Inverse folding.
């Protein structure tokens, strides 16, 4: 054997050894990869692999997908052929799966093409699936999916596109595209990190009935999830270019019942514990496991344990064609932030630029704004109570034990918000009867440690016009402070007897507290300028009011019967004072612009019937005043009792000689609040 032959044999032996070594290495990498299975997606889906046949060069594999209920579906079969440092694969969809897809989606799959690239050295996987099919209407469609797996980061990027799908004569989608990223959260465990879905058009028929056809154009959904070992942040945004709801025949414009343009919905959750996921809620909304109480309870837990929750929905234009009405630039927002004491600050806002209602009484509202803020809310107690009610109403429709319900209700009211502030503004309002400009309503409510509920409202109105009566009112202000004692007992009684629908006896302690309830209004005041529609300012009117309203001792009989004597006795126990003041110029100087106003003429006749001042009114230099006061079962008019007032009237009407024969009633004048001041 010559030297050249020896070298050739040695090189051949080395090449064979290297090839065998490379083949062993390739098989080793395949085995190593297979050991990573099964892969889990947040315990909702599991991808496993079984190896049917194996030799030195080839393997037959089956990919099996299992859901949370462990229902398994074989999704792909493949034959791998291993070469030194290279792998080829022949993929197929199982015949059984193809038949199930054809049946469920009303389609006929004509061709599947699956191409994959593997790198034993570079540790990457790229796979492409193209499915050609015909939908229900026999239109040709295609579905394509691409998967990229990067070994270094362990990230999986998947994008897919669907030209369209017409499920039946009515339901269809057009041009769907989606991109998603799966990231590792442990050994062979993945979670969804990013998701983007875009659909050009969708037609949905929910039922064969009225107002059940929904058309959606230009749909885009974006989801982003940031993960850490204990918690995650989640944000989602859904935008819809146009949405229409109509009855059975959507092609007829008269059948459209709802149209919305430029819809945007957002939800953001911060620092949510990893054990809480939306898929658990979805599980209880499936038909097989339908349980609204459990789903609602899980949703409340998810929102409660988020450090910050933001929800928003808006639309550039919302139209109700059958009512001939529309809303422009509507915007609703809710934001809840948790502090270090596990209490929340809750802010809500609702705004729109314009509301037009043409049907019946044509109405227009411009620049509506509402904002409220509640501080230090213990949502945990609220949520526990709601969860208790959801489950109790489902398990005990006839009602639960009074003791258990009392404990839950008391805990529910333990941590009432320290303060709630709200504001509402309306730029302009008009209909066929009235118009007003620049209305502002501010309110503030709180609950004191001694169980007194305080609510105060301040209302300001720049201008109010009543054309039919030719009245114009301007610079309106109203201050209304209200105090309720024994507030918790009042709420408990209401919840027991009415809101919750429990047919049970209220315990004695709550009843006794409820009997001590009082309602107080201190220094309420209404003030306004009265003018005519010709913009002529005439004068000022004010009204001051105080009230002390105790709960009647025999409230059960009073509320359950038509015993008018009991009602009269109760009304006599109410302590109140009302002072009405009107400038003399409004009454004495008759304005021609108001001569046709029936309402104003009624007011004038009340104050000065037949040109004479009503005896229930008194006057000072500038004003006519009516004061009525009731206290301790006695009533005074302008500081005089009703008996004294009648005596004065009789003395004025009788001749002078007869006046002397009348018995004079001793005067016990009760000073009015104004006189005291």
């Amino acid at each position: 054997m010559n030297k050249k032959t020896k070298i050739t044999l040695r090189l051949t032996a080395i090449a064979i050894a290297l090839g065998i070594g490379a083949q062993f290495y390739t098989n080793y990498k395949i085995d190593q990869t297979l050991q990573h299975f099964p892969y889990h997606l947040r315990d909702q889906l599991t991808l496993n692999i079984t190896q049917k046949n194996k030799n030195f060069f080839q393997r037959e594999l089956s990919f099996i997908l299992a859901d949370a209920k462990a229902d398994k579906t074989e999704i792909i079969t493949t034959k791998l052929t291993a070469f030194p440092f290279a792998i080829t694969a022949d993929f197929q969809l199982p015949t059984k799966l193809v038949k199930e897809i054809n049946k469920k989606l009303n389609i006929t799959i004509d061709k599947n093409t699956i191409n994959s690239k593997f790198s034993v050295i570079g540790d990457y996987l790229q796979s492409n699936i193209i499915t050609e099919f015909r939908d229900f209407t026999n239109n040709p469609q295609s579905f394509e999916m691409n998967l990229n797996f990067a070994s270094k980061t362990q990230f999986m990027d998947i994008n897919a596109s669907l030209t369209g799908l017409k499920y039946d004569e009515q339901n269809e989608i057009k041009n769907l595209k989606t991109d998603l990223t799966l990231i590792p959260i442990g050994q062979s465990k993945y979670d969804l990190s990013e998701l983007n879905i875009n659909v050009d058009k969708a037609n949905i028929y929910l039922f064969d009935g009225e107002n059940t056809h929904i058309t959606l154009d230009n749909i885009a959904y974006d989801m982003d999830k940031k993960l850490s070992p204990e918690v995650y942040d989640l944000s989602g945004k859904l935008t819809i270019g146009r949405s229409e709801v109509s009855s059975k025949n959507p092609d007829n414009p008269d059948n459209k019942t709802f149209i919305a343009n430029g819809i945007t919905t957002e939800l953001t959750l911060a620092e949510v514990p990893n054990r809480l996921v939306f898929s658990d809620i979805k599980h209880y909304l499936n038909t097989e496991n339908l349980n609204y109480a459990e789903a609602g309870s899980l949703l409340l837990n998810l929102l409660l344990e988020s450090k910050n929750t933001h929800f928003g929905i808006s639309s550039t234009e919302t139209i109700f064609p059958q009512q001939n009405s529309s809303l422009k630039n509507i915007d609703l927002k809710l934001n809840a932030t948790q502090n270090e004491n596990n209490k929340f600050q809750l802010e809500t806002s609702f705004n729109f630029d314009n509301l037009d209602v043409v049907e019946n009484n044509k109405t227009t509202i411009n620049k509506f704004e509402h904002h409220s803020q509640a501080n230090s809310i213990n949502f945990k107690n609220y949520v526990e109570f709601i969860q208790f009610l959801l489950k109790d109403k489902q398990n005990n429709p006839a009602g639960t034990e009074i003791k258990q319900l009392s404990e839950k209700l008391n805990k529910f009211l333990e941590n009432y918000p320290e303060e709630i502030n709200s504001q509402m503004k309306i730029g302009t309002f008009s209909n066929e009867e009235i118009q007003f400009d620049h209305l502002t309503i501010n309110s503030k409510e709180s609950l004191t440690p001694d169980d007194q509920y305080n609510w105060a409202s301040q209302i300001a109105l720049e201008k109010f016009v009543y054309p039919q009566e030719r009245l114009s009112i301007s610079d309106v202000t109203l201050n209304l402070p209200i105090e309720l004692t024994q507030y918790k007992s009042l709420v408990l009684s209401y919840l027991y007897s009415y809101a919750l629908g429990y047919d049970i006896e209220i315990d004695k302690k709550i009843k006794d507290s409820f009997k001590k309830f009082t309602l107080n209004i201190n220094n309420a005041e209404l003030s306004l300028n009265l003018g005519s529609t010709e913009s002529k300012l005439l004068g000022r009117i004010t009204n001051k009011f105080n009230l002390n309203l105790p709960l009647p001792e025999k409230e059960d009989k009073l509320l359950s019967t038509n015993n008018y004597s009991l009602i009269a006795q109760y009304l006599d126990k109410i302590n109140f004072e009302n002072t009405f003041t009107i400038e003399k110029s409004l009454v004495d100087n008759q304005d021609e612009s108001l001569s046709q106003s029936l309402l104003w003429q009624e007011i004038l006749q009340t104050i000065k019937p037949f040109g004479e001042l009503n005896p229930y009114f008194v006057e000072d230099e500038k004003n006519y005043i009516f004061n009525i006061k009731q206290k301790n079962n006695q009533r005074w008019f302008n500081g005089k009792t009703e008996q004294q007032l009648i005596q004065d009237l009789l003395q004025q009407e009788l001749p002078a000689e007869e006046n002397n024969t009348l018995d004079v009633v001793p005067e016990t004048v009760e000073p009015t609040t104004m006189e005291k001041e």
Notes: The longest strand covers residues 256-273.
